[in-house]
Amino acid sequence: MSCAGPRMKMDPTLHTDKKPSWIKVRLPNNPVFWDTKSMIKDLNLVTVCEEAQCPNRWECWGQGTATFMIAGEKCTRACGFCAVKTARPDQLEADEPQRVAEATRRMKLKHVVITAVARDDLKDGGAEHFNKVITEIRATNPGIIIEVLVPDFNDRDWALQMVMDARPHIFNHNLETVERLTPLVRSRAKYWRSLAVLKKAGDMVGGKVAVKSGLMLGLGETQQEVEKSMDDLLDHNVTVLTMGQYLRPTPRHLPVVDYITPEKFDELKEIALAKGFRHVASGPLVRSSYHAADFRPELDVLDDIEADLRGTTELEVKPSDLGIPAAKADVFQESLNQENAE
User: Fold this and answer.
1) Is residue 320 part of an annotated ligand binding site?
2) Which of 89, 105, 123, 205 has a CA-to-CA distance to 269 between 20 and 30 Å?
3) Containing structural domain, residue 270
4) How far is CA 261 from CA 21, 125, 147, 154, 298, in A?
């Protein structure tokens, strides 16, 4: 880990070409991998495993798990670390919630992770689509743990509320990097906005959700900065933390400044646990959804969510819930439906 970070316009010569011995990826060698790949193709689904070039996709698919990416495969943002393509997104697919739910049934999943590209072209940022996917999964696969990894919805509280009203068990929004590097790594995002989203998500459901976030290391951050980000996350309701090595997808992306050793990742895990995180996954190949099922929310949280759902007749967000006057409710709903259909 660097003693001093790189300049805001990162020098490409900072890139460390040679990967160390501990960055190893095992290729598929069992039929489960190919069954998973075939099922994903059959249901015409998108996975972050493929789109983000996750180094663990061989292992995860070989174990019959995958992280589903909804709302298309084209992102409206262009983060300096991310392999997902940036382009004008396609319109939402109305049957995607059913297809994702069917995948969880076929795979007999006990824990599913749902993520999405940033959809700044939609008024709600894709929040209503998240709500529908969560609701459909729960109806198709009762008892499954549902984890969502969401964009920041441009800090629109009413959009975030749509997601939380569907009552995911685990809410994840990645901070990604330390405050100093955020303008370089995530030029369309803001460090404190992401922290605010994490806190609001927990507050919206009275703390009845596990709040999770993640950091990439190796971009030139200092240990002091990493520990400061840990403190900031704890101050904003986060109890589950992932830390992994940044790997450069292409030469057009940000350089890898440092390869963090497994021993350093172990040290940072112990520091995070000592600070108060309930669960920490830390290692070179750790990603947000890697071995996600290793963490299970507290039993009382799960019970509270189910109790709340039993007492709710519908999960749809009403304009009145968002402080929108009744006289404008029809205009709001019509505008939202039209925006999401385009």
Assistant:
1) no
2) 205
3) 39-314+321-341
4) 10, 37, 29, 35, 32
Question: What's the structural domain count of the chain?
Answer: 1
Q: Is 3 annotated as a binding residue?
A: no
DSSP string, 31-51: HHHHHHHHHHHHTT--BHHHH
Cα Dmax for the chain? 64
19 found inside a domain: no
Question: What is the CATH number for 150?
Answer: 3.20.20.70
> Whole-model pTM?
0.80
What CA–CA distance (Å, rounded) separates 149 from 212? 9
Say if 69 falls within a structural domain: yes
Is residue 13 domain-resident? no
289 is in an annotated binding site: yes
Euclidean distance between CA atoms 137 and 191, whole angstroms: 31
Closest CA to 170 of 108, 223, 242: 242
Residue 49, annotated as binding a ligand: yes
Q: Residues 171-197: pLDDT tens digits?
A: 999 999 999 999 988 877 899 999 999
Q: Is residue 140 included in any domain, yes or no?
A: yes
75 has binding-site annotation: yes
Q: Where are the beta strands (DSSP E) in 8-128?
A: 67-70, 111-116
Q: End-to-end CA distance of the chain, in Å?
A: 45
Give residue-wise pLDDT tens across range 53-76.
556 565 665 565 678 889 776 665
Both tokens assigned to 247:
């790997």
Burial 31-53 (b: 16+ CB within 10 A, else e): eebeebbebbeebebbbbbbbbe
Contact 318, 279 (CB under 8 A): no
